[in-house]
Amino acid sequence: MEMRLTPIVCIAQDYIQGKTVDDIRLRQAILELPNNKTEHLPGYLPLVPEMPVLLTENVANEIGLSNGTRGILRQFVYDESPEDIRYQDKNFPPNTKFITQPKYALELLPENIAKAAKINKKTTILSVKHKALPLIPAYSMTTHKNQGQTLGKIIVDLVMPPGPLEVASAYVPLSRVKRLDDILIIRPFVFATLQVKPSTAQIEELKRLDRIAQNTRKRFQFIV
């Protein structure tokens, strides 16, 4: 609204036995399922040009479009719906445009193949095909999701949830940047978070990898 852009909400398409879900209450229930119940294909996907987004599926690994790929939304292409579709939801402003027939986004990002999801209603289990763009807004991401990535500048939260801590809990987010100046820790945290020791299994794995490295150097030391 501050950018004076029309917000777009991409509505997932749901099918049961090849037919579109017509029951309003059932459709609403499916659309409002948490993402972890629909293989991370959101029922409502709000999009605004220039927002950061994240791919949640392997689309085309050969050109770098894989699960976890980050980008900036430049363009969103869709087919106009034959009828004016409105979804009463207080979370979206009145001028929101609702889309049910997306084609692609991020200029080169194709539409995802439909995924199967299941919804449990009382004692009846329905097999639902959930079709949506494999995108989520990416203003932030979890430690698990950003493993292996190198980022420009990051803001990290080191306040950990209850339960045992793993070495990766602190190591992964703190090692995503190349310079100390490019990281900001958002709030105070328990210093013990940085003092977690590796488990016995992790230590044994490190020793195993070290032995492999030493044997490799011995076997190939005369190869130029």
N-to-C series of helices and strands: EEEHEEEEEEEEEEEHEH
Let me know the largest β-sheet: 4 strands, antiparallel
Mean pLDDT: 77
Structural class: alpha+beta
* Unreliable sequence segments: 106-124
- Kindly give the count of domains: 2
Question: For the terminal residues, how far apart are their CA atoms?
Answer: 62 Å
Shape: elongated
Main β-sheet, spatial strand arrangement: 3-2-12-11
Number of helices, counting only DSSP H or I runs of 4 residues or more: 3
The strand count comes to: 15
Strand percentage, roughly? 25-35%
State the share of residues found in helices, binned by percent: 10-25%
Estimated radius of gyration: 23 Å
In a few lines, what is going on in this structure?
Helices cover about 15% and strands about 25% of the residues.
What does the model show?
- This protein has 224 residues and is α+β, with helices and mostly antiparallel strands.
- It has 2 domains: 130 residues, no CATH class; 68 residues, no CATH class.
- The strands form 5 sheets. A 4-stranded antiparallel β-sheet has the order 3-2-12-11, with helices on one face. Strands 4-1-8 form a 3-stranded mixed β-sheet, with no helix packed on it.
- Strand 14, helix 2 and strand 15 form a beta-alpha-beta unit.
- The longest helix is centred in the last third of the chain and has 20 residues.
- It starts with 7 loop residues before the first strand and ends in a 5-residue tail after the last helix.
- About 8% of the residues have low confidence.
